Amino acid sequence: MRWKLPSGWIAWCCRGQDPGPLAGVPFGIKDLFDVRGEITTAGSKVLANDPPATQDATLVAHMIAGGAIPIALTNMDEFAYGFATINAHYGNTRNPHAPERLAGGSSGGSAAGVAARMFSIGLGSDTNGSIRVPASLCGIWGLRATQGRLSVEGSYPFVPSLDTVGPFADSAGGLKACFEALCARSLTDVDVGSLRIARLGGWFGENMSAPMQTAIDTLSMALGATDVVELPEVARARAAAFVISASEGAGQHLGRLRTQAADYDPAVRDRLLAGALLPSTLIFQAHRLRHWFRDRMHEAFAKTDILLAPALVGEAPRFDQPEIEIGGKMVSARANLGLYTQPLTLAGFPVLTVPMKVPGLPLGAQLIARPGREDQLFALAEKLETDGLAEARLI
């Protein structure tokens, strides 16, 4: 984590002008967003000798315009290709609630910083779950906005057709205020009592740990989410997300791999090289499935406004825990942290991660709404916080 206080900020805030709705709020920035005067490493030493950014990324600029104070550049998986924030170049980010466990990734530095009270808001990116996974494991609020609603300008790309950006926060109200600053507009009020809430079943109702199952059941009951919606072909949707991510991720790096392959984390390099070998027919099929699955997602909202699903199978795995049980088989813990987040990636719908109020380690739930209906997500999130059903877990 690199600490930074902009030299002109104190002079700026003393001009006697309204400093904005986020006045004085410290925030951290995932190190794939440009910050003027700093090198954007995207978690890799491959970019360590690049020239410093000449201007702030759009989201960073909006935060500063809203009065927030950028104080840190935060750790991440190299080039955002991972779910764990295990970084061969800059070290691993540990879970503030249990240092022997993962913080999640790839935006783990921003999430852990909020949970550890280093700053109140963190900026992250979410391609396959990189906001939702660490928000759940660290016990804070996180938002993957509707794809395209928040600008990705000035952020280092991972999978351009899937990349989405968004904030973490230590309260539902703080998350909403941050989102409004990033959008440069206020959200309309929503009658929470009128919201129709259903629970995702099938794929999203299987493989949960006992604590996660209890937490989701409790939250569903409190929300009156008795209806169950099942999405079709979820396993194929997740596979399509893998294929699109691997192929587009590889396309971003082929030039550098030809000259700097040794500078990459070997695990990341090998995934990128494998993506470069995918046949075009498979990539085409993955994009076709993406469009089909998006249509099925729209159909799922015919009789509901918000869908509820677990964010992860369970609590944060330990660093020395290479496998977890899925479907009766032991599989890679890190590769399957996105079990419930990756399929939803394809549709581009907004998803808000809720830190459920539970004993033990943090557990998060996903609230999913139609594109552009972040207002509904925030209305429900604030009610959950007010009713004591959800709260950020801070140390």
TrEMBL record:
InterPro entries: Amidase (IPR000120), Amidase_dom (IPR023631), AS_sf (IPR036928), Carboxybiuret_hydro_AtzE (IPR014087). Its EC number is 6.3.5.-. One of its GO terms (molecular function) is transferase activity. Residues 17-377 form the Amidase domain. Keywords: Ligase, Transferase. The keyword Transferase applies. This is Glutamyl-tRNA(Gln) amidotransferase subunit A.
